[in-house]
Structure formats: structure tokens, C-alpha cells
Amino acid sequence: MSEALAFPMYNINRADTGALWRAVQRLLADGGVAAGSLSPSFVGEALLAHWRHPGLVLSQTCGFPLVTQLPDVQVVGCFHYTAPGCEGRNYRSLLVVRAQDSDNTLADFRGRRVVCNAPDSQSGYNVLLKMVAPLAEQGRFFSGVTFSGSHRQSLIDLRRGEGDIAAIDCVTWALLQRHEPELLSGLVVIDRSPLAPGLPLITAASTSPETLQAIRAALKVLVSAPQYREICSALFIGGFSEATRQSYQVLLDWRQEAAEAGLHQL
Predict the structure, then answer these.
(1) Is the CB of residue 202 less than 8 Å from the CB of residue 53?
(2) Burial 177-208, CB ≥16 within 10 A → b, else e
(3) Each residue of 141-164: pLDDT tens digit?
(4) Of 43, 52, 48, 76, whose CA–CA distance to 248 is shortest?
(5) Domain range spanning residue 186?
């Protein structure tokens, strides 16, 4: 059960993520949720297996995998982030390029190369489908797409010239500005995406209604109690609200709109 509680999505600084994990574990245990025996673990690349863990108490996923690959998990809610680009529980992506392309618009990247973190990423892939669909010709816009495995690696690849543009989650960008500013040297933001519902917090399908409400209550304490303010601030967490799976239907709508415009993939 070591993977039944984790926060894998914004793990830029392990110490900050660890502090969040311990605070949430304590709040869950105090609320009667069976979390006291759990220990922190680094999920790594086995994200789908982690999210599908039959004993999953709480984790954070991306909105697009939620609506395409995780039909059985329950949505707990969503953190509200205070990073630039976020509004309430919504967030957006930033279009990042090398400094020499700083005067360009998205349209100027027709026929150039895009680097994405993963094909099932809302912030790194699906949002680009929405944004380039009106610009595509004969079902294409970019000349090629490569997958880096993470937003952080996408930025490294961009700096190396292995791609010309990338869509980066604005919370990830803010965390990297705080902890690894040298990684962003020579890169600039030229545009911002439309808002989308933020990364959902999820629990297993087997989690009882009573336990689900206890998890939500614990997260409300996390974002409101003074003793957790520093922990939340370190991760740009400014609030929490309950949410449902239906809140993320818009992400499928974006994919469908792009398909109707003739763009089925980048």
C-alpha cells in the first residue's frame, strides 16, 4: 500500500512535496482515514499504475488522463494555485520558446517542431491541439513532435534546440522559477493558453462516501489552518474546492473540436 498516498504532479522540490505529504497524512489520520501506516514514496514513471491502485487514498492526476484512462477513480476536488496564470481552481499553459523567437506568435511556428511532455497531457499536448487547430492546414501544423517525458525535460530539450516551442503548465513554470531559475535561462513565454480545470485530486473507486467526505474535510483544513500556511505557500497552494468528473468534460470537448477542424494529432 506504499503508493496509496502521493502527490506526484508538482514534485519539483522533494522537501516541499514531502512536507505536504506528511501534513495531509496527519490530517487524514486525524479525520479517521486509514492513512497512518503509509509512508512517502516516489511514484516515478509508473503513474497509471499508481492512479489505478485499488487502495488509493489520495493522489493528484492530470485532467486528460482522468477523462481518457481513469474511468473508475473518484474525483475528490482540486487545489487552487496562486501561480501566475491560475484563476481559482483553473490553470493554464504557457507557450515557451527560445529568446531568439521572442517576437513570434504561435502562427509563426507553422512547420516547426514542438516538444511535449506526453501525448496524454492536458497542459503539454491537448491544449496545443486546441490552440493550433484553427491554424492547421490539411490536418497538420507542426512539422514534427517529440515527447520528453516531463515538462522539466521539455524545457531542457527546448534549450538544446531539440524542439522550437513547448506548452508548459504554469504551476510547473512558477516552481522552476523558484527552485531552478537557471533551467529557464534563454527561454521566454510568448503566449498563454485558455483556462482549464486544474489537476484533479482523486481516490479509488472503492473509497466509501464517508471516507471521501473525510478526505475533503482534511484538505479544507490544510488550506485554511494557519499551521499549514507555509507548507501550502511553498507549493503555490491557495485553496481547495470539491469537484466532479463532469468538471473535466471540457477537455474532451477541446479534443473533439480539434478533430472536427481536421486536427487529430499534433
Answers:
(1) no
(2) eeeeeeebeebebbeebebbbbbbbbbbeebe
(3) 999 999 999 999 999 999 999 999
(4) 76
(5) 93-194
- The answer to whether 33 and 211 have CB atoms below 8 angstroms apart is yes
Mean pLDDT of 114-120: 96
Assess contact for 144 and 138: CB atoms under 8 A: no
β-sheet bridge partners, residue 116: 147
* Beta-sheet pairing, 93-98 with 144-147: unpaired
Q: Within this chain, do residues 240 and 149 fall inside the same structural domain, yes or no? A: no
Whole-number Å distance between alpha carbons of 146 and 158: 11
128 and 177 within one domain: yes
In a domain, 136, yes or no: yes
CB 80 within 8 A of CB 241: yes
Neighbours of 217 (CB within 10 A): 16
Say if residues 266 and 145 touch (Cβ distance below 8 Å): yes
Whether 98 and 185 share a structural domain: yes
Beta bridge pairs of residue 137: 140
Among 163, 194, 225, the domain boundary falls at: 194
pTM above 0.90, yes or no: yes
Residue 205 sits in a domain whose CATH number is 3.40.190.10
Lookup: cell for 189: 513565454
